[in-house]
Amino acid sequence: MACAPNRLRLLCMLLLTFGFFIVEVVVSRITSSLAMLSDSFHMLSDVIALVVALVAVRFAEQTQSTNKNTFGWIRAEVMGALVNAVFLTALCFTIILEAIERFTEPHEIDRPDVVIGVGAAGLLVNLLGLCLFHGHAGGGGHGHSHGGHGHSHGGHKKHKNGKVRRCETLEDSRSTGEETNNLVGNHNNSPNGVNPERRMAGKYEMCHSDNVDLQINGSAPYEELENGHDSASQLNMRGVFLHVLGDALGSVIVVINAIIFIFVWTPCKEGTVCENPCVGHYCADHLRNISSAGTNETVFNAGPCWVLYLDPTLCIIMVCILLYTTYPLLKESALILLQTVPKQIDMHQLNSRLRDLDGVLAVHELHIWQLAGSRIIATAHIKCQDPTSYMDVAKRIKDFFHNEGIHATTIQPEFVTMNSESRASLCELSCRTQCAPKLCCGAIDPAKPPDGALEPKKLCESKTPTIPSASATSLEIISESVEDTSGAESVVIITREVESSL
Amino acid sequence: MLPLSIKDDEYKPAKFNLVVKLSGWFRSILADKTSRNLFFFLCLNLSFAFVELSYGIWSNSLGLISDSFHMFFDCTALLAGLAASVISRWRSNDSFSYGYVRAEVLAGFVNGLFLIFTAFFIFSEGVERALEPPDVHHDRLLPVSIAGLLVNLVGIFVFQHGGHGHSHDGEGHGHSHSLFNGNVGHGHSHGEHGHSHESKQGHDHGHSHGGHGHSHDDPHCHDDPSHTPGKGASKQILQGVFLHIVADTLGSVGVIISAILMQKYDLMIADPICSMLIALLIGVSVVPLLRESIGILMQRTPPSLDHALPECYQRVQQLQGVYNLQEPHFWTLCTDVYIGTLKLLVAPDADSRWLLSQTHNIFTQVGVRQLYVQIEVAAM
Fold this sequence. Notes:
The complex is a heterodimer. Chain A has 15 helices and five strands. Chain A has helices at residues 4-31, 34-60, 76-104, 112-137, 161-184, 196-206, 211-264, 282-295, 306-337, 347-356, 387-404, 435-444, 456-461, 466-481, 488-501; strands spanning 274-275, 300-301, 362-372, 375-384, 408-415. In chain A, β4, α11 (387-404) and β5 (408-415) form a beta-alpha-beta unit. In chain A, α2 (34-60) packs antiparallel against α7. In chain A, 39% of the residues are buried. By secondary structure, chain B is mainly alpha-helical. Chain B has ten helices and three strands. In chain B, a hairpin with a 2-residue loop joins β1 (322-334) and β2. The longest helix of chain B has 31 residues, at 235-265. The radius of gyration of chain B is 26 Å and the shape is flat.
């Protein structure tokens, strides 16, 4: 399967961590150390994080759209990152709680030598994990092809722009429906149930003009794909990396603590009367004071108390570091899931530039959101003049969005109606029943109205009673040409319709 | 005239006034019924947690201290729900073209995750205690856990009765029921949480999933005034919060039962077993919420439209002039708000406007109010 490097790494780390978890549980049973047991549960949570990331990667490979998930499972990686970030935060909270508990009731470490051994082994495992995930959290995994985007475009940062231009015009005529298909894989009900690879081949045929173009076109989509896949899986790998980092820090703290404990702490030896001033038992202390005052023996004190407080302090420091590094990941994945406009896109500017396009009268309901990684989806209502000019405008709009890096767009055309605020040409409907009032505008220009005082536009739009008189004459002209020569009544009715719509 | 004072504060730009901002938030919280309930319950929970903490420190009982920490953890879930219910009412702006309405789905999801984490934590503690039974002071734990149980029962009552008195639409219930019909049996005695509704009409008002308690004054999921506000707009938040309260109640019930068992029959093993059972129950009860939120966040086709959509596709394809319908994408923005995009391949002489309006009509009938139809004219 493609995308193997990521999966392989995750699987490797998963097996290592799980094995280590088992080792820790066994050791904790042997030495009956509660601290080791709780640390092993932290390892278990690490295993769970890795499993989540693995599941997310596996799901995200299925980019084919299914009946239920029409966008495919690409979002799974963002979800995996979010789950990992939330788990990390919850883990941090539990660690804080445990640390506070330790502050109020300090514990000694039972078998510091065993703790050092196991802690060092855990640190090794975690360092290995860090090396595995650090280099590739920044990208480098090779995306697999699902047919590719089909064409690179001007303005994209690839260097091969100039040469690919020639292919673009050929592709564009077919490309309107194709990018999204390529993006999200074949939809099951799609009539072009053509294999994406075959479609790519079709493009190669179209671009037969230049061999170089073919090659460039062939390779470019793969690179684009890698980028897209990378930035989505980046998020996921970052989550895993942070988890492993947290665990490594934990192991470091365990080892440091145990070492300091061995060298600094003087424990209570068996057989001597010894007091532990750090762990406060009010009743026991009182009794002991009474008894020691009576016996006049030398009482040993257990070692310096600050050693016992070192553990919780280091834990809190570690929690702060973890929270600081997890917060950006949490924020980023949450923002994607909240359907934010991606940060590299300026809506205001985009809107104004879209409006400046030729043939676009108005833009509303513009929504841009990020599916995952670099897959950005945009939808909008574009108001334009008439259906005939719409196809040109549509092409220009699609090109515009492609230049911005948005490849999956759905543009709903809205045509200017009679009652629109813009006074542009209003004749867009094909001639059917509503022909007459529309023709009143168009027919005025060639045919002089009897009432020359009124402007052509005003005739159609004014609500004054002069309409029937003026348009009646023009309508007389029309009624000769129109097939259904209904009586004057219907004509008047039609004009009234026009009035009310105005 | 000479100036009488040198105070030029009014000419300075307004400083960031924390008090003003906080009071603004307060007003926003108190305006809506859901967030009001959440806020008061949060205060109640927080105060009880503080009382428990101070009592535990004073009596030096580790069990009470850890239980109070558990309540603090629950308070964070309530806080997340409250924050989400306030945030999802903010207006849309340049960065958030759909507004912030998805926050409630995200809050429900995060709450579900926290719950799973809590269940995992309780399970691990249960295992630890089974292997090494600590010394539990039952006499102090019992009255406090009974008090905690009462607090949680208040919460359940509040969030169950949150939303009566608004019309149930078959559509909205179809949305919630179709997921829960195939649900695993919960096995817990609550019944409020029970999605045990066989009838798809959803006329039983006792099915509280935590209530749809929010006012319908402001449209939640969209600024479009023509859009009737989603009745379950805070459904996810309330469901998450409700599950959290139920989990806490179960915890208190478990503690009481195990304390009684230990006192009467001296079964030390009862405590860990109860904890593990509770952890399992919590885990199982969270699954529906997680499945729903994950479905929404993964841009899945809305489950309630699963059967209606193919019919709509057929109807659209039968319209005059339409050759084909391609690439339909339908997804849920938040509860009961569906958004769809599709492409129509039409004949060159087809009436685009008529096609557009007909398509919109067809899909509005199933509840998709935001539709983007791209018209592509087939080259002849």
